[in-house]
Amino acid sequence: MTVFWQILIDGFAISSLYALGATGFALIFGVSGVLNLSHGSLMVAAVVAAWAAGDSLHAGPYTGAAIGVAVGFSLSLLTYFVVVSPLQHTRKIREEEKEIFILTATLLWGIMIQQLIAYFYTDNAKTVAPIVQGVVAIVGVRTPANEIFTAIVCGLAIALLWLLVNRTRAGKAVLAASMNPRGITLLGVELSQVYVAVWAIYGVLVGVAGVLLGMFLGISSYSAGPLTASAFSIVVLGGLGSVPGALIAAYVVGYLETLTAYLISPAYRTIPALLLLVAVMYVRPRGLLGRR
Amino acid sequence: MQPPTTARLLLIGLGAVVVASFLPLWASGYILGLLTIAYYFGVFAMAWDLLFGFAGEVNFGPTFLIGVGAYTAGILDNLYQPPIWLCIAAGTAAAITGGLVLALPALRLRGPYFGLTTLVAVLILQNFIVVDAHLTGGEIGLTVPDVISISDTTNYLIALWFMAISGAILFSLSRSPVGLILQASGQDAVQAGALGFNVTKHKLTAFVISAFFSGLAGSLMVFYLGSASVGTFIDITVGVQIIISAVLGGRRTILGAVLGAIFLIAMSEALRPLGDLSNFIVFGMALIVVLLYPNGFFGLLTRTREDA
Amino acid sequence: MSTAERSHLEVSGLTKRFGGLVAVKEMSLSVAAGKILGLIGPNGSGKSTVMKLIMGIERPDGGSVRINGVEVCGWPSHRIARMGAGIVFQHSRPLHRQTVLENIKLALLPDKLTRLFADPQTDARARAIAARVGLSGVLDRRPGTLPFADLRKIEIAKAIARDPQVLLIDEPFAGLTAKETAAFSDLICELRDDGRAVLLVDHNVKSVSRLVDRVIAMYVGERIAEGSADEVMRNETVRRVYLGGAIEIAARPESSFRDATTPFLEVDKVSVHYGKAQALEDVSIHVHEREFVAVVGLNGAGKTTLFNTISGLLPYAGDVRRQGATLRNSSAAAIARGGIVQCPEGRELFVDMTVRENLDLGGQHQPPEENATQIEWLFELFPILRERQGQAAGTLSGGEQQMLTIARALMMKPKLLMLDEPTLGLAPVILEQISKALERLRQTTPITVLLAEQNVTFALPHADRVYVLEHARIVWEGDPAKFAAEGGAGYL
Question: Cβ separation of C81 and B199 shorter than 8 Å?
Fold first, then answer.
């Protein structure tokens, strides 16, 4: 019985983390139309920055986390201005091919960041000092308090995002831009400002998700690829362009992984989710709640 | 300027290959080894270019086909030690099967979904290899008991002429009437259908051809290196290098992919003393090319002005 | 050229639904060998969809299509093409990386995987076809370097190469000069004389009347008239759809507007190109403050292009000025914020958001207190919107969506409101409501309106001045009374 609760709690924590990352990924795709294949690298960069802050600058966990988030934020904007925006506006590539070029460019950019991190900090796993220490007993299960903290922060972040998008004027403009960019332009909103805002929000989400992940598990430069893969698996499962879909899919994937790790073997944890993804792509490429 | 005819380009290519055949006379084993790898890479890149440039399908996981071919050949050799040519044939057949399995549903998908499917295929393959370590050698890799030859020169010449023949076939294909139909299928499927062409049939064929050459080259490379690992055949980084080679050389030129591959391998090697930074620089240069010179080397050379 | 004697096309009960919208409803027609049938209708009538259904580019939901007696309904397009059907698309679609000769050769190729060597016959045949249409001089050039008319010739050449027994041609003369049109007409007649069955699709009876033996008119997916070109042009229903019934005028003379020297909006010799096609040619119009100007024209005339140019969404040559100051350096969003607001043809509503949210987004740049008042006023103008304010915009009917589009634009307190074909696809009773709303707007507010319409009955009663846009050029300007008298007859 304890195992059941362990799975439930562990699964919830990791799913919440996935949900946060995937929400960011889905947001960028929904509004900007970009599948950011450097997603994982941005998260790893945030973790490593937080770790480095603790290691070299002897910063406390809060400061370290803040630095991590700041790095995620800056790198995200850098990605937009250096890689994505120039390709979206260039005249040298035909419109139909732009999507592919942007995909390739973000992939390249992600690998570059990954290599740079490996060079400066080696590819050994790093963990970040958790903000919340100690162990708590839930329903008789000894759980690291950190996990609870993670789940709460993720939940808060997602809730804040939801409030921002659905209840504020600026947020609704962003949502409208994802539905109909031409429509919102004709209502006097500069799309370029919307895009910058979205990548900025994404940067914060990725930074927070990365730092939390680093407090949870050991992260190395090798983690970048699998992190990107899980983000887009979740987003495709949930339906490209649907943030609620991504949220649901995140929990499906998170629990699938946790169940596999506990009941079969940790080595196989990523496989069922991948197989599910393949099945979905064959049978219902739209995903759960997909629009496009 | 009139673009050179197929025959003329093939002749120039033949000339270059003949000249390159004399390289072993004065180059060191190290250089020959490097170029051998580059030539196999060239075949990987040409196969990718056929699929992308002509059928219009972006394969983000060329290493799926290559890996399936390489590992099938390697595992077979480990288990039963059949003659090398049999292993290579089996590897190629496996790659073609893999290509069909991937293509049939993937071709029904639009836009980014197709590219993502190919990426996912690579991830799944990677996972299975790591997990089935007893068969595949897992993360450490596989060693095979046989190699084609121990001589640097022999291996080099085999790779060179294999690349030359593959290149000639792929290039002629691209310039043939079938190549024209493939281009139409990739550029404007609706128009191609209205002109009476079964687009799915043609794209599937392009897939199979791409898989054939990828699998064959992969299998050959296993018996050159004497080993196979995730890092050499399957990793996404390898796939990206293949795509970069083709883009650098110029999409849709087939021959340019070889130049791109040689350049990439040479660069990576030259920068190796920098350690992990070497990859960073190489990919950084590739990113700059993608951003500023999307038509690659050949694009700059021939300057086909489509929209003048 | 060998063509079977009995080539003909028979369509019956053809139906196509896109979601809840019925695009084509029980459409029937037939074309015999050596005859040309014209299929005409305004935008949204379903005529292009009928063509795509016949060719297999879209899958029919019901009905039958027989080519030479063989049932091909539901077949993929490549099989229908090999059965003897050919299509010339409205927009030229050559392969950009291939030469003209290669484009024509492609059409001559069989659907075989094993063609590894070029057949020398193919080259000779392709050159012969090129000579027939007049492309011999440009065979080695790439399409990107060629003028518009040559691109259309490539399309015809491809069609000839396929040697179809049934030929479908979509808007053959759009974008061509009078001379080019005559040459194309002759070519089509030749093809007809070969014994083929030809289906011409267009929105304008006049342009195809010389060629066709019979005409079928369509509206909102159904056939509404059939007969000779003259009969159809005189048909009551057809005239009502295109021109409407009796027209009342309420125009104010141009001299009554105060900004005589510097009109509020000036479009000065503007030219716009889409690729090679000229969408607008040296177009100049002006609109005074508080004036109501109508730009009438058929599909493809350039009305939407004109609006998108004013809104800053397209690159153009020439100048667009607002109160004397050029708009060239302003972004599209800035132009909208500055008071020039467009209700686009596609409405561009945020379909998953509620009516209220759409309106709020319209008012986002205005102070909140003003928005509250404005919304109240709009709910009085369009009472149905108040009823539906909590509903998702996508669930509204066509008429309600159009009202929402106008209301949302009005939330921006525009100085100039541009309405692009607001009546498209709407039932007459809805047009009444919108017409009344426009009337109220005109009388109670200082708003300036620029209306683009092909429905002249709707446009004329409100207009102070009328421009006629035809094939990218302004061909007529004057007051509505004069238009009703002279313009109407030639319009259809």
Answer: no
